[in-house]
Request: fold
Amino acid sequence: MIKRESLHKKLAIAAMAGMLMLLLTITCVAQTPLVINVTENCSDCSANASACENEEGSMTYAGTSHSPGLEDTVQEMPVTVGATNSVPGRATLVSPKDTIGSKNPTFVWRCVPGSTQYRIKVVTANDQSLIKQTSWLDAEDVLLSDQICTINIGLNLLKGSYRWQVQAKNLKGTGEWSYLTSFKYLLKIPGRTTPLSPQGLISTTTPTFVWTAISAATEYNLQVCVNAGGNTYLKVVDEMFDAYLVTNGLRCSAFLPLPGDDVVYFWRIRAHNDAGYGPWSSYWYFETVCGDGQRAVKKELNKKSSAAKKLTRPQRMQDHS
Reply:
């Protein structure tokens, strides 16, 4: 009986010692920095390779941790670095194009799936003389959204015609240059734009303003005013918008919150570039109607709208900057 109890005690002590040694080993491994060795050529996925390429654009990095008195521990860490199953395709260019009014334009193109870097080249239109070619730019530094890339590369163009293109690359290699897009820089004041909406009665205090695009515009200045009595009008909104951010084809649009509801507003828009501001558009009238006020205004819509148009026609307003 005594021998059995002694044996049980020895086994318990040995088990406790084993657990303490295991905890000590885990602590040492956790505090030891992980040394990662990555080979430059990821195409060889042999047993000795430190980085192996997988499908769907992921890479598995094998790292070895070294702890004194312990065996080396190898850990594999999958890291997504972009679709690497093929080289990137051609980029689709957005702007600049046609006639522009800035000697230092912002370049915009559609993102190429799987790309990790881009570079831009600008040449003269006549003899293809190089104006500037950037070094490789990391994709994360030029991403405006999940679909659009943009960057200003610091040009100082003279008046004339130019062409530009973009090239993408990833771990698999370098894609082809995009097709050339032409643009012409002129130092000329932009033309007059036309408001499209909002107009009339609206039921939101966060409308989207829409107007026609001007090809040479680099910015747009939008103003919203209210009548303060008589011929006095106060600006409640005075905003500038980069043209490349608000332009989509032949139209521009921008979202703006307004300071209040059940208010009669007048808005106008003008374009701007290196040469200066273009002429103001005509004023457009609209009124925000929300909640109980909406039902009240709908009841007297015809009478109120007629009176407002007679007393506060936008074209009778005095111009103010």
Q: What stands out?
A: The helical segments are 2-31, 139-142, 243-246, 292-299, 301-311.
